[in-house]
C-alpha cells in the first residue's frame, strides 16, 4: 500500500434493527450504494464490518489513492444526496452526523531501516540516483574541508575527471537519532580514477540527516564529512558495538 493512500473510517450507529435494514438496502442499491463508491476514480477498496457486541454498529473503511480522490468523491456524493434525500437521512441519526475518522497507512518500517537506505543510496557511482535522498543543498565535504554538491559531483563524473568503478558501503559504525535529526557514521570502499590516476581507498564518513515531516517519515541527507583516505588493504577502523548495526 502506498504511503500516500488516504484512508477514512465511518461509524454508523442505528437505534433499531429497522433503521439498519433500511440503510443496508440503500448501500446495496447499484445506483446509490457502495457500487458507486467503488467505481469512483481513485477508490482502492471499501471494507464493511460490524461490531461484535453491538449489531447496530457498522463500520466502513475506505482506501483512496490520495486525498484529492476522496474529496472529489465527497463532492459527488453531496450531489447524489440532493438527488436521493434518503441517502442523507441514512447517514444521520437523531440529527447527529456520522462519526468520521481520517487515517493513514501504518508505516511498519523503522527509522533505522529508512536511514540505512539513504546511506546506501549515497554509496553509489550514480550521483543522480542519490539525489532523490538528499536535501536540495546537500554538500559532501572532503578531508581538506572543500564542499561539493551532488550536481558538481555529477558534472565531474560525466566529464571524466572522476571515473568510479566501485563505491560500496563496508559497514555502519554509529547511528543516532534525535527526534527529526539523525547522525550516521559509516565506512566505505571506493575504487576510482582521478584525472587518470587509479585510487583504491576506504573512508570513514559522517552524514547528518533530517526527517522532512513526521507525517511522511522520509529522511534526507543534509551533508557528509569525509575522513582522509585509508588504503583498502588496511583493516577498517573498529567502532565498539558496530556489530549490532550490520
Q: Major beta sheet, specifics?
A: 7 strands, mixed
Overall, the morphology is elongated
Number of domains: 2
Q: Give the CATH topology of the largest domain.
A: Nuclear Transport Factor 2, Chain: A
CATH-level-2 architecture of the largest domain = Roll
Quote the distance from N terminus to C terminus.
Answer: 28 Å
Number of helices: 7
Total strands: 11
Fraction in helix = 25-40%
Descriptive report:
The structure is a single chain. This protein has 246 residues and is of the alpha+beta class. It has 2 domains: 99 residues, Alpha-Beta Plaits, CATH 3.30.70.100; 135 residues, Nuclear Transport Factor 2, Chain: A, CATH 3.10.450.50. The chain has 7 helices and 11 strands. Helix 1 crosses helix 4 and helix 3 packs across helix 4. About 2% of the residues have low confidence.
Topology:
Blueprint: E1 6-13, H1 17-28, H2 34-38, E2 43-50, E3 57-64, H3 67-83, H4 85-91, E4 99-104, H5 111-122, H6 127-131, E5 134-141, E6 147-149, H7 150-158, E7 162-178, E8 181-194, E9 197-211, E10 219-226, E11 230-231
Parallel strand pairs: 5-10
Antiparallel strand pairs: 1-3, 1-4, 2-3, 5-6, 7-8, 8-9, 9-10, 9-11
